[in-house]
Amino acid sequence: MPAAKGYAALNAQLPLAPFDFNRREPGATELVVEILYCGVCHSDLHSARNEWKNAVYPMVPGHEIVGRVTSVGAEVTRFKVGDIAAVGVIVDSCRKCANCRAGDEHYCEETAVETYNTIDRVDGTVTKGGYSNNYVIDQRYVHYVPENLNLAAVAPLLCAGITTYSPLRHWKIGPGKKVGIVGLGGLGHMALKFAHSFGAHVVQFTSSPSKKDDAIRLGANEVVVSTDADAMKAHANSFDLILDTVSAPHSLDPYTALLKLKRDAVMVLVGLPESFPVVDVTNLINRHSSIAGCMLGGMPETQEMLDYCGKHNITADIELIPIQKINEAYERMLRQDVKYRFVIDMSSLA
Ligand SMILES: [Zn+2]
Ligand SMILES: [Zn+2]
Questions:
Q1: Phi-psi region of 223 (alpha: psi -120 to 50; beta: other; left: phi over 0)
Q2: SS3 for the chain, per residue?
Q3: Cβ(245)–Cβ(188) under 8 Å?
Q4: Å from CA of 89 to ligand 1 middle
Q5: d(CA 44, CA 330)
Q6: How far, in Å, from the CA of 234 to the mean position of ligand 1?
Q7: Which of 89, 87, 81, 41 minimizes the C-alpha distance to 66?
Q8: How many Cβ atoms sit within 10 Å of the Cβ of residue 235?
């Protein structure tokens, strides 16, 4: 079995610490990826600290992986040794339900297997993620990486990227559409880049006036400070879509009041808060509008997103850290002191 080393949370309170373990023996259609970079997603922190009440320890977080293929099984056709490859949040699924067959593996009817903290369909162990030096995975769940992009800055595309790309595509955002982005963090900054790249008129909502210049730099046409009631009111009934990336509990009503009248405008939620807001449904009823939620994207769409990023030279804005700084990075994430995603340089593990 391939030996692995990484950083793990041993319980909800302790800082992450070095941890040795074994990956399962790769099968005929599987490959081993040597991890070069792994993004640090807010979900990692939620999970490591058991804030979603489903943590299994020891937990090795990490689901934004870019690496190099170091071995391939006898029946692997899509990759060869030496290829650069990416692994995201979904690493396996039943492969036969309607959603899996449609390429929506993330909505597998038998529950998709995630990169860490879920039961591996092959050997029944708990999956361990990308804060480590390797990963064993079936080729079906691995993505090609455009070679013109900075590999470290590609890593966050595997969660923050696809999570924001997918809804903007689903609701057909493009020229002539007015899009609002709520929150300017790891998800929000990718949403901004994609919405701008797709040709929409993009308004960034933020509670921090200090983020204005950065939002403009990242592609916003306008920036609205969400606590400024007059500025909010000036945008009433004008948005085709508002993408809410904030995972802290907050009211949706100030935003649903900004959706267009009778245009099937939608507020889409991609951040998962610990507690849920009460919604003023009159904002929806009076507008023929809706609140929707979605997560990630399937394997084909994730590849489509990576290819799009290669073609349009889009990556995340990152701060590269050695793995020894992961606990400090978590504290800084909680203070929103990161522009806009930490990525672990896995060579620091050696
Ligand atoms: Zn994530
Ligand atoms: Zn399935």
A1: beta
A2: CCEEEEEEECCCCCCCEEEEEECCCCCCCEEEEEEEEEEECHHHHHHHCCCCCCCCCCECCCCCEEEEEEEECCCCCCCCCCCEEEECCEEECCCCCHHHHCCCHHHCCCCCEECCCCECCCCCCECCCCCECEEEEEHHHCEECCCCCCHHHHHHHHCHHHHHHHHHHHCCCCCCCEEEEECCCHHHHHHHHHHHHCCCEEEEEECCHHHHHHHHHHCCCEEEECCCHHHHHCCCCCECEEEECCCCCCCCHHHHCCECCCCCCEEEECCCCCCCCCCCCHHHHCCCCEEEECCCCCHHHHHHHHHHHHHHCCCCCEEEEEHHHHHHHHHHHHCCCCCCEEEEEHHHHC
A3: yes
A4: 7
A5: 9
A6: 34
A7: 87
A8: 18
Per the structure block, which two tokens stand in for 29?
A: 């259609």
b/e code 109-118 from CB counts within 10 Å (16+ = b)? eeebbbbbbb
What is the distance of C-alpha 49 from the center of its chain? 18
pLDDT of residue 2: 87
Q: Which residues hold their Cβ within 5 A of ligand 2, which is an ion?
A: 93-94, 97, 100, 108
With the C-alpha atoms ordered 250, 253, 259, 265, is the resulting torsion angle positive or negative? positive
Six token digits for residue 229: 């009631």
Q: What is the mean pLDDT of each run of 10 residues along the chain (350 residues)?
A: 94 97 96 98 95 94 98 97 98 98 97 97 97 98 97 98 98 98 96 98 94 95 96 97 93 97 94 86 96 97 98 98 98 94 96
At which residue do the structure tokens 């990242």 appear?
218
Instruction: Please tell me the distance between residue 252's alpha carbon and the centre of ligand 1 in angstroms.
Output: 22
Going from the Cα of 112 to the center of ligand 2, the distance in angstroms, rounded, reads 7
Ligand nearest to the CA of 44: 1
Residue type, 214: D
Q: Token pair 């990718």 is at which residue?
A: 190
85 Cα: distance to centroid of ligand 1 (angstroms): 18
> Residue 300 Cα, ligand 2 centroid: separation in angstroms?
14
